[in-house]
Amino acid sequence: MRKGIVQLVAIGIVIGVCVSLVAVLFKWLPTSDSVQFDRITDVYWMATIISIAIFTIVTSVIVFSVWKFRVPLDDDADGPPIHGNTGLEIAWTAVPAILVLAIGIVSAVVLAKNGEAGSNPLQVNVTGQQFEWKFSYPSYGNFTTAELVLPAGQTTKFSLTSVDVIHAIWVPQFAQQQDAVPGITTTIYVTPKRPGQFAVICTELCGLGHATMRAKALVLTPAQFARWVKVQRKK
């Protein structure tokens, strides 16, 4: 009995290490460049760790059972009747329920946090149209540009709409994504962490030119952003 448990644990360690290496060594997500993405990453790793643990346990038992309890190919006899284990059934029902509830609670908290505007958000109105984006800044005279420019460290409130079909705005490094829908205004919040250049992508199939519906996003320091605004207002 003890030998079997040791063998089962050894199989579990091997499987767990292999799966963990796959999770850690491969780059599954873009680099986080927003506060909201950091929160989403926390939920991702929480769910990943839980998934690795469950996968390791289930796979280890399957591999161990196939190895230790296999029968000869010519053995067609039925196995002995086995009564279910009530305690085990309660455990494998209660534990997944608790884990799913925990993931749901953490996800709800992150969703609520990512939906907060914070103090003094920058307002940017976004208009989607086949096949381009337009960005206007109502707090600075409502000038419009074809590229998205944001200050690092300040939360931006995006108000989105569309003039034709449904589009969806997404900057992979910001993680936040929202549809731009004709006739209504949707909102999303992003707080860039550092200066850089990124791509604005439409993630809703919107026609033949969908793949070309991209724009440039620039995150500047607050001082650089102030100078950029001054130049745009003069234009």
Explain what the structure shows.
With 235 residues, this protein is α+β, with helices and mostly antiparallel strands. The chain contains four helices and ten strands; from the N terminus they run H-H-H-E-E-E-E-E-E-E-E-E-E-H. The protein has two domains: 92 residues; 113 residues, Immunoglobulin-like, CATH 2.60.40.420. The protein has a five-stranded mixed β-sheet, with no helix packed on it. A five-stranded mixed β-sheet has the order 4-10-9-6-7. Helix 2 runs antiparallel to helix 3. The radius of gyration is 26 Å and the shape is elongated.
Numbering strands along the chain, what is their spatial order in the largest sheet? 3-2-1-5-8
Instruction: List the total number of helices.
Output: 4
Strand proportion: 15-25%
Number of strands: 10
Q: Calculate Rg over CA atoms.
A: 26 Å
- The coarse overall form would be elongated
SSE order, one letter for each helix or strand? HHHEEEEEEEEEEH
* CATH-assigned fold name of the largest domain: Immunoglobulin-like
CATH class of the largest domain: Mainly Beta
Largest sheet: 5 strands, mixed
Number of self-contained structural domains: 2
Q: Roughly what percent helix?
A: 40-55%
Low-confidence stretches are none
Mean pLDDT: 91
What is the CATH homology-level superfamily of the largest domain?
Answer: Cupredoxins -  blue copper proteins
SSE-based structural type: alpha+beta
Distance between the termini: 81 Å
In the CATH classification, which architecture of the largest domain applies? Sandwich
